[in-house]
Amino acid sequence: MSNYKLLGVGTNAKTIKGDGSEYLTAILYMTPWKVMVEGKAFNSCPMAEQANCIDACLYTAGRGAFNNVQAARMRKTEWFYRDKTGFMRQLIDDIQKFKTYCEKRDIQPCVRLNGTTDIRWENIRPYGLNIFEMFRSVQFYDYTKISNRKTKHIPNYHLTWSYSGANVQYADKLQDALDNGMNAAVVFRKEYKLPEWRGINVTDGDKDDLRFLDPNNSIVALYAKGKAKRDTTGFVVDI
Question: What is the C-alpha to C-alpha distance for residues 199 and 214, in angstroms, rounded to an integer?
Fold first, then answer.
């Protein structure tokens, strides 16, 4: 497989479940929430504070718990904010390599740009086009906490809104997210086995990571991982 400077392929347990004969997923992992780059503060997860999910962030799950992995993600984040043009040039190169690799094997290339961030990639246009317009045959998908992102018109970008009950004002955005064409992911303390949650159909989000295959207007049930297992803020839902 090609050597990628920004993307990770086959490094996430959930995407591996979906990486079979039909789909292969590449993920961009960077540092979430607030970072300092050359004396300036940047926020890669603008709704994290309101959703109260900082301590329970999946950034600490799996390989993300290792210091060397976090250091690599920080280097990518610093590059993004210090030299966005150069970063985007490298990202385009990585995606093109990944796309070529998949096409040679008759596999659908899938990319998650916000593995651990919540950046509005639809607004970044390094050459007059955003990344989704540059790679129309690639399926992009992400989780987001921004319920009003306007991406319904982008056919190859699927968003799943991440619910949190830790803040009433944030939790009330559930219907906004559904109205904007997103499903809603809910992190449960224990495995959720009921067919509905708050009157909305539930689908199992832990069987794979291919969120764009989920039925429309669904609650995507996830099981708490990493530090989220000990969360008491309300981000993780008890049943």
Answer: 17
